[in-house]
Amino acid sequence: MLNFVDAISYISENPNIYLIPTDTYDVLKFYVVGIKDTPYEGGFFKFTVITDNNNYPFIRCDTLVWHPNIDPMMPKTKTNICNHIINVNNWDPEKNSLKDVVKMLKGLIHMEKPYYIGCDHPLNDELTPKNFEHKAKEWTVKFASQRD
To answer: How much is the pTM?
Structure first.
């Protein structure tokens, strides 16, 4: 089974991540708060990770966000995040941990300039390097300015 203790410990030690209590042992929910000088500054971005023993975890950003690796229009029953760590072909519970997943999700929101490097095939196909920063800030204010 994937180790929730390490992930929860990492969350509790990080001032920009807040754990959301759940009633079940196989669901991890948390907010990543956007940091200063990023397009996501001050936003609250909610993530859900559902595990099934050592199988590939279901990972979702529950906040509408303008991001090259997050598809805000994906149906709620599907993972809407693209990253090599959580790619179904790369996932290995022996090498990847829930703590790695939380760190990766935090990194998506705490990205530094240049914002669009390394995203040759964005999951959000309406997003371009030209419209990214303005629209990301706009969506942060519109959809992520408060916790649920």
So the answer is: 0.90
